[in-house]
Design a protein that fits this description.
Length: 78
């Protein structure tokens, strides 16, 4: 996730586009069941990255958090 933090302006739309490309490529080069497994894994990775970015944005700029839909608030932690 550290690399993604340096990408200013990254939004959930970027992840949606990435997942679409990943799924399209998987369907083109993998057997259907392997493509489905890889798409599911990519979706979990994308969600995890977005949750990490949401947490970071809430720490540094809570009023401008493009990942606010994940509802992570630093004040709720510990």
């Amino acid at each position: 996730m550290i690399k993604h933090l340096s990408l200013h302006g990254i939004t959930p739309a970027h992840f949606a586009h990435w997942l679409d490309l990943f799924q399209e490529t998987g369907q083109a080069v993998l057997l259907p069941h392997h493509a489905a497994e890889m798409s599911a894994m990519a979706a979990r990775i994308g969600k995890s990255l977005q949750m990490g970015l949401a947490f970071h944005h809430n720490k540094t700029d809570p009023d401008n958090n493009p990942f606010a839909e994940y509802g992570l608030r630093r004040s709720h932690m510990g």
